[in-house]
Write a structure and sequence with these properties.
Helix 2 runs antiparallel to helix 3, helix 3 packs antiparallel against helix 4 and helix 8 crosses helix 9. With about 325 residues, the chain is α+β, with helices and mostly antiparallel strands. About 40% of the residues lie in helices and about 25% in strands. The strands form two sheets. It has an eight-stranded mixed beta sheet with strand order 4-3-2-6-5-1-11-12. Strands 7-8-9-10 form a four-stranded antiparallel beta sheet. The longest helix has 26 residues. The site of aspartic acid (ASP) has 15 residues, from strand 8.
């Protein structure tokens, strides 16, 4: 009896050791995460304190995503959590801090895509959802639809018990000021994240308040799968920022994947070509990561809030070149 017990316990120790080894070897595989906080005319003479706030916030967001991937979490969780963090931060034009519409309120758009199976979900023109990106994920996971808008999206949110806020929760003095002066400067901005996890899965997420002074009901590229967001394990994951109408017309995010798939372009060639050929100077940029872990950040504006980290120790946050 004793020897049977001994044999059994040795067997279980062996099994549990080999399980943890396979876990360790999985965790040694590579991951990449890239985020953006939007493109635009970003003045290099911005006060140091403001610059520091942007850099710190992006570093915080990137750390959240990096930890998830490092601990063996999925790219889908990483992109959602990073975007949620940026939505809650009033510095960026998404969630709290969203720009104002022409009637002085806020309408938010977001989408998320899982590169494993092309599952995707999006919401547009929501006015009271604290974190549109999480509602977009619920659309993906709990409905048979891809995009819910306005009241329909909000009543789905109620059913899902997501957090609701009054529309003026999104107010910030800085955006109000920009809205009053919107003729003098064109404000762009959006947040997004793309990631490759240690299992080789790609995901992308984008969330925005849209363009300042937009017509009520206007929907940009951010919640449009294939325009502002795309992810396919066979090619790449993409999140865009810029003048949404252009990104919709040229199906920017999907076009990059298509050039890779059908024309054998590298990620860099595809992304640079689309931004160069399709997006007029000053109107946009994007972040993308491919299935092999190559990533690109490309834009034709004066700057782009962005950060990138990977399993080889890269951790970089930038605003300008
Ligand atoms: N692409 C967003 C939109 O058109 C705005 C932006 O990225 O600046 O709604």
């Amino acid at each position: 009896m004793k020897s049977i017990l001994l044999l059994l316990s040795t067997f279980f120790i062996f099994i549990s050791e080999s399980l943890s080894q396979s876990n360790t070897s999985q965790q040694a595989q590579k991951f990449v995460i890239v985020l953006h906080g939007g493109v635009g005319t970003i003045s290099k003479s911005m006060p140091d304190s403001l610059k520091a706030q942007y850099l710190n916030s992006m570093a915080e967001a990137l750390t959240i995503g990096k930890k998830i991937l490092q601990q063996g979490g999925t790219s889908l969780d990483a992109v959602e959590k990073v975007v949620r963090y940026l939505e809650d931060d009033p510095m960026f034009n998404a969630g709290k801090g969203a720009v104002y519409t022409a009637d002085g309120s806020h309408e938010l758009d977001a989408s998320i895509m899982d590169g494993r199976n092309l599952s995707c979900g999006a919401v547009a023109s929501v006015r009271n959802i604290k974190n549109p990106i999480s509602l977009a994920r619920l659309v993906m996971e709990k409905t048979s639809h891809v995009l819910l808008v306005g009241d329909g999206a909000e009543s789905f949110g109620k059913k899902m018990n997501v957090e609701f806020v009054p529309n003026n929760y999104f107010d910030t003095p800085r955006r109000y000021e920009q809205w009053l002066n919107f003729n003098k400067q064109e404000i762009k901005g959006t947040v997004g994240c793309v990631a490759l996890d240690i299992y080789g899965n790609l995901a992308a997420a984008t969330s925005t308040g849209g363009m300042v002074n937009k017509m009520p009901g206007r929907v940009g590229d951010s919640p449009i799968i294939g325009a502002g967001t795309y992810a396919d394990n066979q090619t790449c994951a993409v999140s865009c920022s810029g003048k949404g109408e252009l990104f919709i017309k040229h199906s920017v995010a999907y076009s990059i994947a298509a050039l890779m798939k059908y024309k054998n372009y590298s990620l860099k060639e595809a992304a640079n070509e689309i931004i160069r050929e399709k997006i007029t100077q000053g109107d946009g940029g994007l972040i993308a990561v491919d299935k092999d872990g190559n990533y690109i950040i490309t834009y034709n504006t004066s700057g782009m809030f962005r950060g990138a980290a990977n399993s080889s120790g890269l951790f970089e946050i930038k605003i300008w070149e």
